[in-house]
Amino acid sequence: MDIRVEQLTAGYAGHTAVDGVDLTVGSGQVVAIVGPNGCGKST
Q: Exposure pattern of 6-40 as b/e (b: 16+ CB <10 Å)?
């Protein structure tokens, strides 16, 4: 089973954190989102 995200756009306080992201994660895959503090990883 896959998890698929298409055209994800999210932001906060007038700032766009992600814009138009497409992502497919297959069964057994591990994905990590890395970046500095305050860059929108939790969004």
A: eeeeeeeeeeebeeeeeeeeeeeeeeeeeeeeeee
Domain count, the chain: 1
The string of pLDDT tens digits covering residues 4-43 is 999 999 888 888 888 999 999 999 999 998 999 987 787 6
Q: Measured between alpha carbons, how far is 33 from 22 in angstroms, rounded to an integer?
A: 14
pTM of this prediction?
0.62
Instruction: State which residues form the domain around 16.
Output: 1-43
SS3 category, 18 = strand
